[in-house]
Amino acid sequence: MAGNVREWVWNDADGEALTLGGSWSDYMDNNRYATTAHRMQRFEVNGVRLMKTLSAPIPDQLKAPIHLAYTESSFQLPASDEAFRIMSSQFIQARSAVLDTKVEIVQEAALWIAEEATVQYADKSSAMFYVMRPKRLAGKVQPIIYGPAQNCCNSKRPNRNALENIAFAEYVVNSGRALVVPIWAGSYERFTPIDLDPKAMADRQRRAAVDWQQDLARALDYLATRADIDVDRAGYFGFSRGASHIAITLAMEPRIKAAVLLSGGIPMGELPHPMIDIVNYAPRIRMPLLMINGRFDHIYPYKQSQQRLFALLGTPADKKRHIAYETGHFAYPPNSTARDATDWFDKYLGASR
Predict the structure, then answer these.
(1) What is the pTM of this model?
(2) Cα angle for residues 35, 36, 42 (degrees, 5° grid)
(3) How many alpha carbons lie under 13 Å from residue 235 in its C-beta half-sphere?
(4) Three-class SS state of 129
(5) How far apart are CA 283 and CA 314, in angstroms?
(6) Which domains does the chain show, CATH number per domain?
């Protein structure tokens, strides 16, 4: 049951304690996932829900241990170089000329300003980006492209709801950088309902991969036109969905110089189309990359998902790092996470000015 806290349950899962449901601080999609932990962990997001049996005792089978199973399709090998060359040819797209750009300040806080940038192209398409930039710096700032969590894509919502992402990554802006949130394909007003037909779903995932690559390229193209942005020192910060699905774009965009993936990994569900499977892209991701995860994350399990993605990354061993906190999918120690991410960008993009 979703509520104020995740509930400890009687059952163990693979030898560890188990909580179910979502807490007050989890985003909506987390409510349906299991999370394991040590019995003596005392997180503010974990609690209990009391019950009383009305008649017969609880059957023993309801209290039996639970095995958290994952599909075998999640353990396939990456595409060969030849297969990837053929697959990546689908990302080749013509760039349409920019006809008009409109920038509007839509939110302001003590330390930052949020702008909404709308770009119109000659082919009658458009793109929208939200740029949260610090007030205290007068010179050029480094842009950090943000790949959001699944809550961006559960339903059709106004594009300005993308400003909710500042709550998850405000420390990026406070470190003197600009947080840039494209309206990615499938998110906010670009939401498309789920199609249960397998062929339609596979085609949708194929097109999503191509669209995300274009979204990232257009964001960097736009930032290159701004006098206040140092696009030569661009980074990427992905969270959950943005650290797994959308992160495939890192293999296709050489202008990203460093990346941080928070709560990401290899998806454990079966993916109908290889175009959206990060297993095929990981060996081609070569920029300095930091992974931050929860040791008890069962959306992206530690061994099967996190460690495997880390091992597959094409980044040299001395330029990649994996930090696993004793938490689940979402709740991290905020000060430590902020330090980890900003120190990584400081090291590989240079300290913000």
Answers:
(1) 0.86
(2) 100
(3) 29
(4) strand
(5) 4
(6) 98-295+304-349 (3.40.50.1820)
Residue 331 and residue 328: Cα distance in Å, rounded? 6
Q: Could you tell me what percent of the chain has a pLDDT over 70?
A: 95
Using the predicted structure, report yes or no on whether residue 71 has a pLDDT greater than 70.
no
Q: Containing H/E element for 29? A: none
Sheet order of strands, 16-20 included: 35-37, 16-20, 6-13, 46-47
CA distance 28 to 329: 13
Q: Which residues contact 74 (CB under 8 A, 6 or more apart)?
A: 266, 267, 268, 269, 270, 304, 305
Q: What letter represents residue 241's amino acid?
A: R
How distant, in Å, are the alpha carbons of 13, 232, 267 from that of 72? 19, 41, 11
**Cα within 13 Å of Cα(265), Cβ side:** 26
- Beta-strand ranges (E) seen in 109-248 are 112-121, 126-134, 143-147, 178-182, 234-239
Question: Mapping DSSP to helix (H, G, I), strand (E, B) and coil, where does residue 77 land?
Answer: coil
